[in-house]
Amino acid sequence: MKSSDKGFLLHRISYSESSLILVFYTQKNGLAKYIYKGGKKKKIAMHPLGLYEIAAFKRPESDLGIISTLQWENPSLKLLDKPLKVLICFFLSDILRQTLKEEQADTGLFNFLENAMQNLNTSQDDKSFPVQFLIEFIQLLGFEPQTMEDPKFFDLSNAAFLTESSGLPNEINGPIVTFLNDMFLMEASDLELHKEALPIILKYMKLHLPSFDNEKSFGIIKDILYT
């Protein structure tokens, strides 16, 4: 069956000497995998979180579609010539690849990714972008912590900001608690704390998402983006 869709590239896997397996989060089908025959020899850029128009065939008994044509949907985006933005795309695509498992459409999630990539394209503050993206992504997936006025502690395991310590592991305190609470309320303004906030947000995700582990990609973004 022939179909057309558009999707954000999450992952590419070498399939043969000339071909690729490409994993997209698509508008019509959610998470989808395709064989791209001869993809290694094509001139089209395989940009992580690039948005592509996909024309493909798929047999009912197969989990893999076969791409007939692939086209970058918005070539006006200037991410490819901005190394820090490309790095952020690699980092975020690694997170999405680990967290998005459903093979079904989610219009809200697709629109969120579309808006986020447009914002990254025009953003003048790349260092704050990953934290802002992850906060909104956590809220979209529905496992954000319980916020409150003037918290003193953040219990990561129980997903709650607190005025008094729970005495349990995976609890943090200090100025970063207020910053994170305000981030989830969309009220934060202290941009200097984004570097400190990112590993905490990733630890929170690791505690609440099965098999989530992005230490490798975090190590890269930490060493380059926040130097």
Structural class: alpha+beta
Radius of gyration: 19 Å
**Total individual domains:** 2
Low-confidence stretches: none
CATH class wording of the largest domain: Mainly Alpha
Q: In this structure, how is the largest beta sheet organized?
A: 5 strands, mixed, barrel
CATH topology of the largest domain: de novo design (two linked rop proteins)
Oligomeric state of the chains in view: single chain
Mean pLDDT: 90
Helix content: 25-40%
- Any guess at the CATH architecture of the largest domain? Up-down Bundle
Order of helices and strands: EEEEEHHHEEEHHH
CA-based shape: elongated
Write the layout of secondary structure elements.
Blueprint: E1 2-14, E2 20-26, E3 30-36, E4 51-57, E5 64-72, H1 83-99, H2 107-122, H3 129-141, E6 153-155, E7 160-162, E8 171-173, H4 175-184, H5 194-208, H6 215-225
Q: What does this protein structure show overall?
A:
The strands form 2 sheets. The protein has a 5-stranded mixed beta barrel with strand order 1-2-3-5-4. A 3-stranded antiparallel beta sheet has the order 7-6-8, with helices on one face. The longest helix is centred in the middle third of the chain and has 17 residues, at 83-99. It is built from 6 helices and 8 strands, in the order E-E-E-E-E-H-H-H-E-E-E-H-H-H. The protein is elongated, with a radius of gyration of 19 Å. The chain has 227 residues and is α+β, with helices and mostly antiparallel strands. Strand 6 (153-155) and strand 7 (160-162) form a beta hairpin. It folds into 2 domains: 2-72, OB fold (Dihydrolipoamide Acetyltransferase, E2P) (Beta Barrel), CATH 2.40.50; 79-225, Recombination protein O, C-terminal domain (de novo design (two linked rop proteins)), CATH 1.20.1440.120. The mean pLDDT is 90. Helices cover 36% and strands 23% of the residues.
